[in-house]
Amino acid sequence: MPETSAKDGYNSTFLQQVQEGSEQNLNRCYQCGNCTAGCPLSFAYDIPVNRIMRMLQAGERHAVLSSKAIWLCASCETCTTRCPNEIDVARIMDVLRHMARREGLVAEPPVRHLWDAFLKSVEKYGRVFEAGMMANFVGRTGRFWTDADLAPVAIGKGKLGFRPHSIKHQNEVQRIFARFREQQ
Known about the structure:
Keywords: 4Fe-4S, Iron, Iron-sulfur, Metal-binding, Oxidoreductase. The chain is an all-alpha fold.
């Protein structure tokens, strides 16, 4: 059980868990702000990237894992590239998403639904089947008309097939997913 102070939400093991999961030393972050300055999505975040890093150092588990920023991160790695201390910030954000998901703290459900639809498609077909993935996403979210205007263009360019592509060793991909479920 993590040690948490009821007063300020401090969790003494949070930093250690994130560092172990990401294999990064967050103590090297000195809040220069390069990660936030370079982030193309920081305008949409509820908490800027450098503030997320500081909150990690301060053990603010619930606030970090409840933030929208960790779900809106595109993992473009601009923050990682710009970090003068070579901290893989994008990897940390990925670890935070996994932690939040395990704890049921999903601040942006549509992002989680898209992620789930993508993984289900890869598990079933060995690679993403775009039309099936989008049908799954629409079914989960009810967002029937979102980006519907893009489908004819994608179909016209051969980018959106009506049948999944076959791959060699599809059963190997399914075994990877099965191994993951066994570890959970």
